[in-house]
Amino acid sequence: MPVSVSLKVNGGDCRFEVEPDERLVETLREKAGLTGTKVGCGVGECGACSVLLDGKLVCSCLVLSAQADGGAVETVEGLARGDRLSELQRAFVEEGAVQCGFCTPGMLMAAEALLRRHRRPTTAQVREGLAGNLCRCTGYTKIVAAIRKVARQRAARGGRG
Predict the structure, then answer these.
(1) Which residues lie across from 51 on neighbouring strands?
(2) Helix or strand or coil: residue 52?
(3) Which of 78, 100, 122 finishes a domain?
(4) Angle 16-6-130 from CA coordinates, rounded to 5°
(5) Are residues 9 and 72 in the same domain?
(6) Which pLDDT score is estimated for 75?
(7) What CATH number does residue 50 fall under?
(8) Whole-number mean pLDDT of the chain?
(9) pLDDT over 90 at 71, yes or no
(10) pLDDT tens-digit readout, 20-51
(11) CB within 8 A of 85, min separation 6: which ones?
């Protein structure tokens, strides 16, 4: 029997009727139409479905939609402002951190969570912040470079995102 779930998704109020066993990744993709969140392994190992739930990085394949009721969800679509990419998204493009693109949404969300926790993350902190997000194409070097670039840019502006 479906249950009603209220979420704030990328700043907007949403209500969904979900099955008790429906995962957040399914609700976001199928009901909210936010297909940037990818379905990868389905068991929390790859990070392709990473979103921020109440400001915390989570694998949305491991969260039931009903568990998120009343929560605030941020997806990769929420990083951009209309057609304008966020600073972090632009840095991924500029640094060549995007190849096939499948892992990119999860990587971006992990990077955003990291940059909110650490104004000037070290390379080791960036690598730790990306742990759990798998990429088969880039070798991570360009991803780390993009994140460090944004951290430097934000620090030069006094930490403002």
Answers:
(1) 58
(2) strand
(3) 78
(4) 95
(5) yes
(6) 98
(7) 3.10.20.30
(8) 95
(9) yes
(10) 999 999 999 999 999 999 999 999 999 999 99
(11) 79, 93
